[in-house]
Structures
1.
Amino acid sequence: MGQLIDGKAVAARVRAEVKQEVERLKAERGLVPGLTVVRVGEDPASKIYVTGKKKAAEEVGFNSWEEHPDASITEEELLSLVERLNEDPAVHGILVQLPLPKHIDAERIISAVRPEKDVDGFHPMNAGKLSLGKPGPRACTPFGVMRLLREVGCDPAGKRAVVVGRSNIVGKPMALMLLQADATVVICHRKSNLAEEVSRADIVVAAVGVPELIKGEWIKPGAVVIDVGMNRMPDGKLKGDVEFAAALERASFITPVPGGVGPMTIAMLMRNTLDAAKGGA
Amino acid sequence: MGQLIDGKAVAARVRAEVKQEVERLKAERGLVPGLTVVRVGEDPASKIYVTGKKKAAEEVGFNSWEEHPDASITEEELLSLVERLNEDPAVHGILVQLPLPKHIDAERIISAVRPEKDVDGFHPMNAGKLSLGKPGPRACTPFGVMRLLREVGCDPAGKRAVVVGRSNIVGKPMALMLLQADATVVICHRKSNLAEEVSRADIVVAAVGVPELIKGEWIKPGAVVIDVGMNRMPDGKLKGDVEFAAALERASFITPVPGGVGPMTIAMLMRNTLDAAKGGA
């Protein structure tokens, strides 16, 4: 019977660490990290996410701003807004909440954010720095997973880590981070024999967005299971990508959904913003 | 008994394709791709490599230049040189031959090359584009391996591809290219159980720089074996990272060393330079 990984508690710890460093930065250098969230139009989910990010930013002591242009904003106007934020020395982190309206090329907007201020870690330059093993803002969700592993005493070095899913925001950066931590890394997707791969994993990270795709019986006894999936079911409940109850029987540690990886994303966004402020000061 | 993959022949084919496209570009758009190789000081190996690159560039019909500052050049002077080449519209590709003298920060120089002209594919922006699955110049050696696989009819989709080695110029970009081609990708290194991993590989790419580290008996019957290793032995001969004779017995296809992957690197550099000229025109 595995132990739960309490993402809420770890995220709170990360935020407390950030808060403490912010206080020191203020006292020693008169510097207050600033985060601007750009939310375009009225996507209801975006509103919830942005509210959570602003709340977290305020709690750790950041300056926190929201830019909220109408959905009718043109791509050029949005680029000008990003450019203004790039130039603003009080803004250390710029987060453009996705999705953007269809008439706007999201890739072009993300690439326009100055890489040092890209606290989401989505800019090609930051994806490249991760791949090359250089410091830089890291994609928040996999960065949070690395912290969870550390918290439960799981050192990936020499372990077989199987990442299911290869998205740009979770799967690929996750694989690169695990590789940098000296795991033997396997990256799987819909063309892979998942049962076979997962059954040989010391660490499983599931990030596909298919409820209970990963069967509990595939989990190797003692494995650490990280479930990044957040699938909203018809009854309104959230389910992960892993068959939780059955996996719990075999894993040493496992993240619940919700309350596992989820809270880490915002916490690591705070970490990235703090680091951007320190680096840019 | 496996078949040899004739890298020399494939590389010649790639260069012939490039040459044909160059002729068309000249005829239709009056455009001649231009490649400048920057060689600092007198490293004997660098001289040989640069000579080979210049020769290949001339053969495919590029304009080809060499900048050859003295080893005493300062970092700032070298940056100015790179900046001048960045601004020169006749130069579509800039290749800074490594290694650079110790007083120069190679990373800073590489990052100064405009990403569109970084025909080595080493710029963080281009590493990022590869990771994100976006077009851009690709690291030449793994790009060449992808072409070799295609030439022998090996489609990586759904296959288990095991990459041994995780360097920034071969292992990591190789893994990302194989992933983009829908392989299940395993990345191994010195902390991995190589015998176990290699024995389950449909495609093996060895890029570690240790002669005959990969034993022939580990090769799964029918696997495709790509040996990127080029290890100079005391007797002056080159050896790969794979125990060749024994692996040949089991593989379906295998690259020899020399004459396998080696010739592909320069050929793909020509491809990248041509693409840079087409994109930049």
2.
Amino acid sequence: MAASQSLLSLLLLLSLLSVAISQSLIRIPSDRKASSVDDDLYCDSWRLSVETNNAGSWIKIPSRCQRYVEQYTIGDRYLSDSEIVAFDSLTFAKTVKVAGDGKDAWIFDIDETLLTNLPYYALHGFGSEPFDEAAFDEWVELAQAPALSASMNLYKELKQMGFTIFLLTGRSEHQRNVTGKNLLFAGYNNWERLILREPSDQGKSATLYKSQKRLELVNEGYRIHGNSGDQWSDLLGFAMSERSFKLPNPMYYIQ
Amino acid sequence: MAASQSLLSLLLLLSLLSVAISQSLIRIPSDRKASSVDDDLYCDSWRLSVETNNAGSWIKIPSRCQRYVEQYTIGDRYLSDSEIVAFDSLTFAKTVKVAGDGKDAWIFDIDETLLTNLPYYALHGFGSEPFDEAAFDEWVELAQAPALSASMNLYKELKQMGFTIFLLTGRSEHQRNVTGKNLLFAGYNNWERLILREPSDQGKSATLYKSQKRLELVNEGYRIHGNSGDQWSDLLGFAMSERSFKLPNPMYYIQ
């Protein structure tokens, strides 16, 4: 009976303790947990600084943010953020009077815009490792990057509305075949033109290269209404589109 | 003894249940909780769409985001986000070679940049109510808006580094005295010039008005290195600064 009462007391204590913990009445001191909360707050602000271009140029994600970026990209938030970008893009597209002469244009970047390279970055620290061009080129050769689903829906809607679609990528001319193959594999088709870096474009900043290519389109008589890209260098410079749409990318930065 | 055993079993069950709940092994169905999680995810994405200018023009915050915006602004996140903007600004400022001729300029917006009107917006739904110009003007007349602490630190550092500070606000010329009084009350001083909307500027978009004023500074020989503002209309247009810094503001949008 005495043993039973002791057990009873122990269980009562355990029970109350569990309820208290579950309702956060008692906080268990844990450096790891506290630091994780701090990291989340910091990394959330860091990500905003990147997405608004306040951060400017950066080489790799802060080491304390690796877990955060992983959770962001493979969880609901990346998906949700991308979907609102597509929603905003479509909302604007609906205000454009498409003339029917084929000159109403929309530009898409490819990597982290139409396609997602998450399968690659998941194996390479989600941007916490220095960029390995050789390894990434091998991944590109596989032509198996899946579509970013929000962009796929937007792409199809814009096509239906009569926009002429240009794909403007930092990938090189020698990657034309695998890039086209990957786009088809992912479900994209009927783009007007796929523009890649020619040998004469090598060494140019992405901002300059993409601006020059946009200017060529403008000189051909295209009206560039929208431009979708995950890098500010996809969107800024000259011959800018009427409206630009910045897709999220907390993994890497391209000048 | 039987009663004691029943109690024992009950407590054992309760104990296990509590542990299970505390460790999220069992999810308690709760519409309110689920919807709150959905709202947080949506509102987080909505806020990003606003901060990146993807959303374009908007009138008031989505009604489902009122609680979210309140928690964001009065909690740690607004502070943390503002601090990283100040950090990014300072990091860039340190790369500028200040010539010592007084022509190296930095522009600050005032509302939600140097000063925070949170005491006002806390009483007006954090952006969920339509903008009430008369009520806001009454608040401005009080001249009691506190400094946004992150901007205060940046302001002082830039002054010490020798930058010439211009304050460029959408407030009107007739609010010059109360605005100066409020800035001094908040702890700012020694700005070069406070630029407000003159009667001839009324009716212009903020982007046009601010671009024209920046162009006047450029024509006076100033080199505008940095520009800090919570609205994209503070930053975009022509005669843009070398680098722009977007402070967070999920409460309102100015064209």
